[in-house]
Amino acid sequence: MARRLSIAIVLLAVLLGYVYNNSHVQRIIYVSGIFRKPERTEVAPEDYVVIDNTLHCEDMHYHEPSGLIFTACEDHKGSRLRWFPPLGHFADPQTARMKGKLQIIDPKILELEGFSGPFVTHGIDVIDDPDKPQGEAVYIFAVNHKPNTEHYRENGDADAPKSYSVVELFHHVVGSGRARHIRSIWHPLIVTPNDLFAESPTSFFVTNDHYYSEGFLRIIEDVFTGAAWTNVIHVQLQGPEIVGGSDSAGVHASIALDKLHNLNGLGHGRTRDEILANGCASGVVHVGQIQGGENTEKTIQVEDVVELGSPVDNPTYFRDPYANDTFDASGIVSSGPTRGIDYFSNRGKEEVLDPIMVWKASPRSRKEKEEGVINGRRDWDAKVIFQDDGHRIRTASASVMVAIDPKEDEGRRRAWLFVSSYHASSVIAVKIDL
Q1: Residue 5 has pLDDT above 70, yes or no
Q2: By CB atoms within 10 Å of each CB, which of 131, 207, 213, 355 scores lowest?
Q3: Per mean pLDDT, which range of 18-27, 178-187, 253-262 is the poorest?
Q4: Is the separation of the CB atoms in 87 and 337 below 8 Å?
């Protein structure tokens, strides 16, 4: 029944795409993976590692100055099935099991100082503390989807949102094993937050990945590319720390980017002002520039769109530290399900195979761009760098690459690829050729 529902939903999207714009139909079918057979990239046993104690880690970020990978995970298997607003799961609002974790992949769990509330993790970002030497301390921004007490309290407001989603701000001294909670951040414009892009301790961007939090219209949002109802919010704080006050104290927010389909993950690009924003169900990554000065409302100007071949989440930019005049492996890395069509039938199951694809899109050289104009190609060369049939990891929502020094790898150009997801029992790492 669930499989038939998935097919029916995609067929509905195709019909809507045909009515809306004929050119969307082929793209919808391709990205959905309806005719795609899962594949598995074979790797040597010594080139494959399962990272223990990394359960349901939806997002990861590689912090280059410290050489550490930060991630946000859960504490109980199956917790995403009982309460996870981003998937429309509102079955169990009890907070006792909502014990999300910030972790470092060694791995190492950070003790959360001054924080005892429910923690339902989602997107995160990590930036250097500007008042410390680079790599010594960081600020960690993390989305937290808490149950809304206004809805669930005795005689609560049935019309109030089920989720009270906020952004938690932490400070971590690298090597300390602890993250100090600074404050929770909320604003009426932050409705369905997914991922974060931090500029400074007082300025960040956050995506609202849906207009509807549940129901049939949310499904339409997922599959119909014409449902361009999502946005990116710019948030400015009066200061990182507050004394007393509410979650909204000192918070100013404005719309930085809107009218795009299923905006989801955010990532840092090639420069300080370049931001990556993926349209998850559309299988695209929008490459934008941040506009506006310090302490002002900021906007995002989309300058390029990278088309990939499956739904994709949480883009990261791999900066090749060993690039030279003849070879540069830098590029956008993003991953997602091989068969997006199975999302609706699989998302509520505890045990199921969800195959994945990891993509890398590299910017073309000037010569390649000139040839591309003649051949009708875009400025990015996209390819699949890793696949799994679901036996090693269940679906994928984040991927980061860490280069291996060629001097330590017999001159080969390779990298460790880390892959995680909100449903996976562990983060995995594999060595891949560049």
Answers
A1: no
A2: 131
A3: 18-27
A4: no
The 10 Å CB-count burial string (b at 16+, else e) for 187-220 is bebbbbbbbbbbbebbbbbbbbbbbbbeeeeebb
- Identify the active-site residue in 122, 145, 171, 172: 122
Q: How many other CB atoms are found less than 10 A from the CB of residue 370?
A: 10
Average pLDDT of the residues in 24-41: 88
Give the tokens for residue 354. Answer: 């969800």
Which residues are part of a known binding site?
Answer: 59, 124, 194-195
In this structure, what token pair is assigned to residue 216? 């049939």
122 counts as catalytic = yes
Average pLDDT value for the chain: 89
What domains appear along the chain, each with residue ranges and CATH number? Answer: 9-433 (2.120.10.30)
Tell me the per-residue pLDDT of 312-343, one tens digit each, with 9 for 90 and over. Answer: 999 999 999 999 999 999 999 999 999 998 98
Give the number of other Cβ atoms within 10 Å of residue 409's Cβ: 13
The answer for residues whose C-beta is within 8 angstroms of residue 395's C-beta and 6 or more apart is 336, 337, 346, 354, 356, 421, 422, 423, 424
Burial class (CB in 10 A: 0-12, 13-18, 19+), 367: exposed
Residue 394 CA, distance from chain mean position: 16
Structural contact between residues 256 and 266, judged by C-beta atoms closer than 8 angstroms: no
Contact yes or no for 256/205 (Cβ under 8 A) = yes
> Which residue, 281, 290, 285, 288, is CA-closest to 236?
290
| Token pair for 108 | 């190492």
Binding-site residue numbers for Ca(2+) are: 59, 124, 194-195
* Predicted pLDDT at 328: 95
Q: How far is CA 235 from CA 27, 180, 251, 297, 406, in A?
A: 34, 21, 7, 8, 41
